[in-house]
């Protein structure tokens, strides 16, 4: 049962949602956004409290139908973050398509302050029906296939195929859905 202050807060958030985010179901306050014009969402979009969406330069965040996002989720886009339909995100998730500097063979000088290093990155794509657990981190250039479940506290630093359960840091698939048996089976990489 909600307390009176929760009910008042939810009512305020509902009114603000209808005024500032028409088409969304509920954007709970506080909600911090940089470059609101670069946020695109389909009907059914819902957030928890304390979410932060940042679009840098021409960065875009696109959310499909019925995306439900928990409390304190941070999305940061230099290029593009695309999230499919019917996704469920727990709380304290970080998704970013960017990094302060490049750290390959000819990367940034470690004597340069991180905030002075150039922003670099590549798009992030999350398919339909994806469930991200608590404290998941999704890094630049990653694709998470439709139907995936990413376990709590995982760091997704490389792409995950469709219909997999992935866990760990870095996240690795441990189970895959078998259409023939209708069950989850141990994951076996193709090839």
Automatic annotation (TrEMBL):
Pfam families: Hexapep. Gene3D superfamilies: Hexapeptide repeat proteins. PANTHER family: LIPOPOLYSACCHARIDE BIOSYNTHESIS O-ACETYL TRANSFERASE WBBJ-RELATED, SIALIC ACID SYNTHASE-RELATED. This is Acetyltransferase. It comes from Adlercreutzia rubneri.
